[in-house]
Amino acid sequence: MMPEQDQPMETAIGLEIHIQLSTREKLFCSDPVDFGAEPNSQVCPVCLGLPGALPVVNREAVALAVRACLAFGCTVHPVSVFARKNYFYPDLPKGYQISQFERPLATGGGVRVRMDEEGTEVPIRIRRIHLEEDAGKSIHDRFPGATAVDLNRTGTPLVEMVSEPDFRSPAQVRIYLDQVKRTLEYLGVSDCNMEEGSLRVDANVSIRPRGTLELGTKTELKNMNSFSGVEKALRVEIDRQRSLVARGEAVEHQTLLWDERKAEVRPMRSKEESHDYRYFPDPDLPPLKLTSAFIERARETLPELPEARRTRFIEGYDLPPYDAGVLTSDRELADYFEGVAERAGSAKVASNWVMGPVLAAMKEADGGAGSFPVSPGALAELIGLVEEGVVNRRGAHTVLDRMVQTGRGKEGHPSQIVQEEGLAQVSDSSQLEGWVLETLAAHPEEVRRFRDGESRLRGFFMGEVMKRSRGKADPGEVARILSAHLQGEKE
Ligand code: ADP
Ligand code: MG
Fold first, then answer.
1. pLDDT the model gives residue 372
2. Domain co-membership, 59 together with 92
3. Any residues with CB less than 8 A from the CB of 412 and at least 6 apart, and which?
4. Residue ranges of the chain whose pLDDT lies below 70
5. How many domains does the chain divide into?
6. 368 and 374 in contact (C-beta within 8 Å)?
7. What is the 466 CA–ligand 2 centroid distance (Å)?
8. Is the shortest distance between the CB of 483 and ligand 1 below 6 Å?
9. Ligand minimally distant from the alpha carbon of residue 165
10. Ligand 1 and 218: CB distance under 6 A
């Protein structure tokens, strides 16, 4: 396939992301928001839309939404308005959804999508972020021949984040989604779990002749349940649109459902326009008014965001961009690394330990940095023991394994474990020399080949000496003594 920039047709993509806010209660009533509860157990007259029930907006949801708006650089409006979006659907008992339409919570803002380690960035403008409630869920596969409805999800607080059609490739979309998700996780605004539906992405896509200004007719893709699914669906749809145009046919404005198994899209319905929904301000809810003090307080309490933290790791700790990216991919991991780096001498050494054995152990335990049994202090202490030559790297890995296995990962334990398990490094030269001589005596054939020029056998001898020391020899010293003797052999 031709690279994107050489195609005669250019792609334009805009995203609508629905993000479930991590509140305890729903947006307009105090029912709990709890994924996986018994169907229809978390409902009340407000979210069921029973006559006479009155909605009251959840302050916690507003506060979380405002944090998200500010993190993406949007302007939060002092007044926004809840409207009714009217449509009929079995999982929408009220017959309308409460959403913000003409006057959204925030507008403007953007995300700089970082395409590579060199810092190539693609600016994506955010059109708006608004608050709305979720609908219930229709269940088609539980009762044969019948559809059931679970209304627990009705009224769950969401923000919808709408971008301008600024993406030019599915790859840009993928990276944007990763960045947005990471930011929301740092903010504690949402858990962004796509499988549980707390982050849903609809992608709008069109093509136009390269160099023209006017956008082509778009289709809207739904039903993707992973970021890679979004990327794949977009590729398939762009190909479909390109072949239509190549055949001289027009792209039809419609909503398409992504079928992950068949890797194809299929039409869902012809698209409704916003006037079909007969939006009007909800008479039960006063306009949402936010004081500038409230907005400023939210701004002041924003944490350092992942992109800023990544830059600080590169500049402040002098880490390679790759390390900085991995370490800031998750807030708890970044905190963990900083805990180690502050106590260990070198940030790069700390980074190597955290990105290597520590991340591997976290993956194995299926847990994050927050629940890792080895404290940053204990790891820094272990790194110190290696630097001081008390234990070699191999022994240190054993100590780390023990701390993970036994949960004894507090300060003071690394040196205790070195003692208990006899892992202290041996640097005594007569001891090391003994192992070297034994090794050379045991392998006369290899010594001869080494003498004949097979220099890569040096590694073999190193390995044998380390084995004889049961892993405890000081590798630097061994290398030195080994060299001296092999040189001697050569003469
Ligand atoms: P609709 O009225 O169909 O909802 P909107 O103009 O509200 O369309 O835009 C919805 C989303 O679709 C936005 O993310 C926007 O960036 C994107 N979008 C709009 N027009 C196009 C287009 N021609 N091609 C690609 N994306 C588009
Ligand atoms: Mg729209």
1. 93
2. yes
3. 378, 381
4. 1, 269-272, 488-491
5. 3
6. no
7. 67
8. no
9. 1
10. yes
